[in-house]
Amino acid sequence: MTTRTVDTTQELAAFLRTRRERLDPHDLGLPSRRQARRTPGLRREEVAELAGISVDYVVRLEQGRGLRPSADVVEALAGALRLPPVERAYLFNLTGQRPRGADEPATTAAAPLAELVDDLSPLPAMLMNQRFDILAWNHEMTRLLVDFGTLPPARRNAMWLCLAHPQVREYYVDRERVVREGIAHLRAAWAAHPEDSALTDLIAEFLTRDEDFARLWAERDIEVNGRGLKVLRHPGVGEIAVRFEVLVPLQDPDQRLVVFRPADDGSRAALDRLCAVRP
């Protein structure tokens, strides 16, 4: 039979049952029972005890009675059932809840992604989080924009560079469009992560200190732009047109890999000249 739509209540019930039944009580250090087990895995009473909730609540969840457990209960069930990260995320999605810490973006680059950024040379590449904080970059990106390593960590932010860095803010030929698109993306991130206080503080800083940001923020444009074209006016080699692509890794969905590619032969030659000098 083909499943045409997802009945989340019934899927939640079935998912909890199958995950309970696949666990070995001995692996969890549970005491042996005199009464023989008629079904594999844990009993509902054991899941309830491990999760710190009532047996009746577990029964009703597994019977698909339409309950909507809180985020704390979902977290407790995920722990009791020893769910790996992908199944934990699935459980949260079924219940319509967000896991604790979901609004806290990564502040350091995942090691495989940092290595990938280096491996993408000679294409300029960098890794960002939802706040536009720059977590990793390669040599080509520092030559194209700025050496991020010379900046304080709090200023390694693509939006701040575009708005306030004395060198970078003059780079973009169509600066109004670039800033507008960045703000529209930032507003979407702000709505998706309402508990990210650092993101809220960053937006408040921009609103206070930058008139262009305040004007464009008030227009409430929303856009998540995963690819496009930017033209940079580099003081060393002149204009460089680059196409950018933003990729979201499945394993680290709160990080964004940004890759620039020359848009034409002239830009490719200019980028080659720019990146030829290494420290």
UniProtKB/TrEMBL annotation:
Protein name as it appears in the record: Helix-turn-helix transcriptional regulator
Origin: domain of life: Bacteria
Segments traversing the membrane: none
Naturally occurring in which organism (per UniProt): Umezawaea endophytica
Domain HTH cro/C1-type: from-to ranges: 34-88
GO MF, any single term: DNA binding
Lineage start: Bacteria, Bacillati, Actinomycetota, Actinomycetes, Pseudonocardiales
InterPro entries: Cro/C1-type_HTH, Lambda_DNA-bd_dom_sf, MLTR_LBD
